[in-house]
Amino acid sequence: MLKNRQTNRRRFLQGMAAAGTASVVLRSPHQVFGKESPNERPVFATIGLRNQGWAITSKSLKFADFAALADVDANVLGANVEKVGQRQSKKPDAYNDYRKVLDRNDIDAVMIATPDHWHTKIAVEAMYAGKDVYCEKPLTLTIDEGKLIESVVKETGRVFQVGTMQRSECQQRFLQAIAMVKDGRIGTVRRVTCGIGGMSASPAIPVVPIPDELDWDFWLGPAANTPYRALPQMREGYGGGVPLYSNAHYSFRNWHEYSGGKLTDWGAHHVDIACWAIGATDTGPSKVTPIEYTLPVDYKDGHPVVNDRYNTATSFKIRVDMPNDVEMTINSTGDNGILFEGTKGRFFVNRGKIAGKPVEDLTDSPLPEAAIEDVYGGKVSENHTANFIEAMRSRTQPISDVWSHNRMLEICHLSNIAMRLGRELNWDPAKREIISDAKANSFLAREPRKGFEINM
């Protein structure tokens, strides 16, 4: 059995290398196997605790016990250990290095809420350590990372939930929207518009001393080595307690080195719902065209020419040619949400409302009784973590699986590549590669920094 597993893993790694994915390092066999099933109340650990890391941890305390927390910022780590300790009978253990979490046999699952450039490395290593995984969206930094994660989920049989919580929460408005489309309430879908908002540019951000509490080298991890930058003005409200402008903390989303701007932030939510509604969760676009857009810095050959300010798109309008002649538009302007337009009408949905004549018509002509459950695949879970734990117990994949997530996220990644290169991209959804454009295809993967390869 072990010999067969090692042979399969060798073939898998050879296949990934042939596909041009990130460098990997073989992990010893005794580290691959983990617990086969969770306890009645599963034991969790969270890796990455600022902002969304605390949000998903706090929501999950109702369903799971947290044995450990990990973060590279000592202040964030300490504060969250205290908060979790107040909510459960025992303080979780605290680690700077996530690998100490993966080495523990008493942990059933990890929740990953690090910056995006860390997701794939931690997720893959967690699965090979025998852990189920809940990872915040966007799941990946590149398209090839998504292919790698899919392969490891299939190989290891681990349960993997992506944190696109609109699939389970928001008072079921999005599930209702999908059910309406599938029930033909707007006829044949012609257009879908995803309003996801824009991002702000930044002033020049100087190199400054690294805060004492931050392990900057480990924060960078697989990303290229670069100095820590920040301005003294502090952020208020959500994400407070950190510089308003920096190349770390909450501002990581504004840098292509670590994320994909609004396209992979809000885009990962609304493009997901749009693809689900039009039946495109297992396919992809044929073309992605940047109609108009603004990049906050100059680019050459797809790369920013300066490194001292934000570099993701601040505004954009992108056309995406989807199957069945559906035109998708991703906008930085207009209301945040999704507008569905068909041959018989149109309606709009976001986290605060669902509105339009087809919605009003539900008063006299309601959806079939089980329409929303049919969309969800059963009774709708109490929240996204509850669905994850239900999947852990049944050993099935949850509502936000890696395959559907990666398919829609490919649209977001391609949109960023198209803007960086300033041209339309033709996409082969079967081969999952850009057609006849070697330069654009070079952006499908990213080589990790030496010493931060994925350990498998």
Note down, in words, how this protein is organized:
Helix 5 (116-128) packs parallel to helix 6, helix 6 (143-156) packs antiparallel against helix 14 (402-421) and helix 7 (173-182) packs parallel to helix 10. A 9-stranded mixed β-sheet has the order 16-15-14-8-13-12-9-17-18. The protein folds into 2 domains: 2-165, Rossmann fold (3-Layer(aba) Sandwich); 166-445, Dihydrodipicolinate Reductase, domain 2 (2-Layer Sandwich). It is globular, with a radius of gyration of 22 Å. The protein contains 15 helices and 19 strands. 32% of the residues lie in helices and 18% in strands. The protein has helices at 2-18, 52-60, 74-87, 99-102, 116-128, 143-156, 173-182, 216-220, 261-264, 267-277, 357-360, 371-376, 384-394, 402-421, 438-441; strands at residues 24-25, 43-47, 65-70, 93-95, 109-112, 132-135, 160-162, 189-195, 287-294, 299-300, 303-304, 315-322, 326-331, 337-342, 345-349, 354-355, 425-428, 433-434, 454-455. The two termini are 18 Å apart. Strand 12 (315-322) and strand 13 form a beta hairpin. With 456 residues, the chain is of the alpha/beta class.
Summarize the structure.
It comes from Novipirellula herctigrandis. The protein is of the alpha/beta class.
Question: Which structural traits does this protein have?
Answer:
456 residues; alpha/beta; Rossmann fold; 2 domains; nine-stranded mixed sheet; six-stranded parallel sheet; 19 strands; Inositol 2-dehydrogenase; oxidoreductase; NAD(P)-bd_dom_sf
